[in-house]
Amino acid sequence: MRLKDVLVPDIGDFDSVDVIEVLVSVGDTIEKEDSLIIVESDKASMDIPAPFAGIVKEVKLKVGDQIAKGHLILTIDTVDAKADEAPAVAASAKTPTPAPAPATEAAKEAIPAPSRPAPAPPKQVQPARQPAPVGSHVETNREKRSHASPSARKFARELGVDLKLVQGSGAKNRILNSDIQAFVKGELAKPRSDNMGAGVGALATLSMPVIDFSKFGEFETKALSRIKKLSGANLHRNWVTAPHVTQFDEADITDLEDFRKSMKKDAEKRGVKLTILAFLIKASVNALKAYPNFNASLSADGDSLILKQYYNVGFACDTPDGLVVPVVKDVQEKDVLDIARDLIELSEKARERKLKVGEMQGGCFTISSLGGIGGTMFTPIINCPEVAILGVSRAIYKPVYNKETGDFEPRLMLPLSLSYDHRVVDGADGARFTSHMRMMLSDVRRLLL
Ligand code: CAO
After folding, report:
1. Ligand 1: which of 276, 339, 351, 419 to mutate, judged by most atoms within 8 Å of the beta carbon?
2. How far apart are the C-alpha atoms of 237 and 34, rounded to whole Å?
3. In the chain, N or C terminus with fewer CB closer than 10 Å?
4. What is the four-CA torsion angle of 158, 161, 162, 168, rounded to 10 degrees?
5. What angle in degrees, to the nearest 10, is found between the helix axes of 177-189 and 150-159?
6. Using one digit for the tens of pLDDT, what is the confidence trace for 24-34?
7. Protein residue closest via CA to atom 17 of ligand 1
8. Active-site residue 244, yes or no?
9. In a 3-state reduction of DSSP, which class is residue 185?
10. Closest ligand 1 atom to the C-alpha of 414?
11. If you measure from the C-alpha of residue 392 to the centroid of ligand 1, how many angstroms do you get, rounded to a whole number?
12. pLDDT in tens, 316-356
């Protein structure tokens, strides 16, 4: 073992400077010129590099210490590492013999000047450092800190930015001031969920790691559509603010489907495509009337319930640009054919990007039908400030036991998934609502009354 002390070099015109970062710890293997600490004066911050390679045995200062020229930074064991002497080694301070010299007798080495002294850089100024070769122990230590100049670090500290989260665009991924600015802009542009405090305190989530996907294979980047960005932010807010419960049920729509098919030709003559969705909208308004808490919104202060006297039902519509929710207005005044007509008009407009803002506003309840596509069940996200949404999956024939005949009969069963906001709706009412829907859809006469 050959121990050498590393002292603070000439730091220019300053009596003392503050230690703002200690970049190494005991046991670290370091190369000559690796940054050891960062110090800051009232004018600038600067790295202090290692004068030689070795293994750190003791660190003699900490963040917040005030230090001056000659102050002991740390002790390095230079035996196992290649002791590449710094050019500015003071002859009088050199260790006369190699190990086993005790630490107290360790040689006092002068070291190169800081990498960026200010205001007047002396001739010992070191150039900006580059990372050590990948795979070395030093690289592992460096991974803990980001590759940035002292001024960029200072800038990040002033803005409260954690450099580990910033992607560098400079040479060898060095983080530039412009990267920090771009990071802050990006963070500010992200949707906030201040309303319920999600994302803060105990609910705070880990930030998503920045992953270099090219390490795993080829890929291409495709920008999200404006609709996807908007609906994504809304869906996220709704998901984290409303405590969701999803009630599942099945409705026997065998008779309804027979009726729909019998009406289909007639409807087509009138220019209308009659799908199950029109009947579902009609049935849902009947259920909303029976259970008014579902036709409601929480007031902005969360202290009361706004019970609506109108019945507007939105439906999720899949478009090439993403999901939109047009609203069928005043359903209580419409028959099934009127509703089917509105569905065609609104979904065509949605797909041609011709929907007006007003045609997507004022909804009381939403239906998301994936029945034309497939699937057995799903849990839809509430379209806040509405308090419930009905998910509909593909109807299939199932054997259903008939108590009167004692036989199993093939019945067309429609899966229903009702997600509701548990702040407003109790579980019992959730089950009552889907039971009501089941009853309405199973008896077409009731539905059309
Ligand atoms: N079970 C079985 N068949 C169904 C069905 C169901 N639940 N729902 C619809 N069908 C049938 C229709 O009756 C129609 O059959 P016919 O041609 O014999 O009449 C066929 O499937 C196609 O229906 P459709 O999808 O064209 O019409 P629709 O009124 O049922 O739906 C619309 C219209 C706009 C809701 C739909 O086109 C759509 O965009 N669905 C996607 C909604 C979505 O993305 N939701 C997810 C939101 S959450 O991410």
Report:
1. 276
2. 46
3. C
4. -110
5. 20
6. 889 888 888 88
7. 275
8. no
9. helix
10. 7
11. 9
12. 999 988 899 999 999 999 999 999 999 999 999 999 989 99
